[in-house]
Write a structure and sequence with these properties.
- By secondary structure, this protein is mostly helical.
- It has 2 domains: 74 residues, 3-Layer(aba) Sandwich (Rossmann fold); 62 residues, Winged helix-like DNA-binding domain superfamily/Winged helix DNA-binding domain (Arc Repressor Mutant, subunit A), CATH 1.10.10.10.
- The protein contains 7 helices and 2 strands, in the order H-E-H-E-H-H-H-H-H.
- Helix 4 packs across helix 6, helix 4 packs across helix 7 and helix 5 packs across helix 6.
- The termini are far apart.
Length: 159
């Protein structure tokens, strides 16, 4: 926590040169709302989106969740016109179950929600996701979501 509170982005934030979306909850208790707005103001061209939530991480059960999804849908590209072969998402290497799980992950559903939706254990979901990350050659769930969204997955609303 000390490192978290001592981190000062004021010097490096203006150096960001990629599209940036900053989402911040109005009533969050961890980081004051004005700090989120200030970070967005420091990043050239950043878009700041206020959220009606009390949580640092918006929960899928909150009304603000749909706004997060909509903002991410409009911010993230649906497809890249130029992709190298190594960047292309090869869904053929995934089993039908892994592809189904990746699609649900790309919808923003957590492991517990996936387990309930598919009638399997959370441990089984975790194992599938580990295998998916390995097959896709990515290091994180977020990278897998981005790649899946680029391939057109995750566009359905979670049930």
């Amino acid at each position: 926590m000390k490192a978290f509170y001592k981190t000062d982005l004021r010097k490096i934030a203006p150096q960001v040169r990629c599209p940036t979306l900053v989402l911040h909850a109005h009533e969050e208790s961890l980081i004051p709302f004005n700090e989120g707005r200030a970070v967005a103001a420091l990043i050239p061209g950043a878009r700041f989106v206020p959220l009606n939530s009390r949580n640092h991480l918006v929960l899928s059960t909150e009304p603000a969740w749909q706004k997060v999804r909509d903002e991410l849908d409009s911010f993230l590209p649906g497809t890249h016109e130029v992709q190298t072969e190594s960047e292309e998402l090869n869904l053929d290497q995934l089993t039908p179950r892994e592809r189904q799980i990746l699609d649900i992950v790309a919808q923003g559903v957590d492991n517990n929600g996936i387990a309930k939706q598919l009638g399997i254990s959370e441990k089984t979901v975790r194992n599938h996701i580990s295998t998916i990350l390995d097959k896709l050659g990515v290091d994180s769930r977020l990278q897998a979501v981005v790649r899946a969204r680029e391939a057109g997955l995750g566009r359905k609303s979670p049930s």
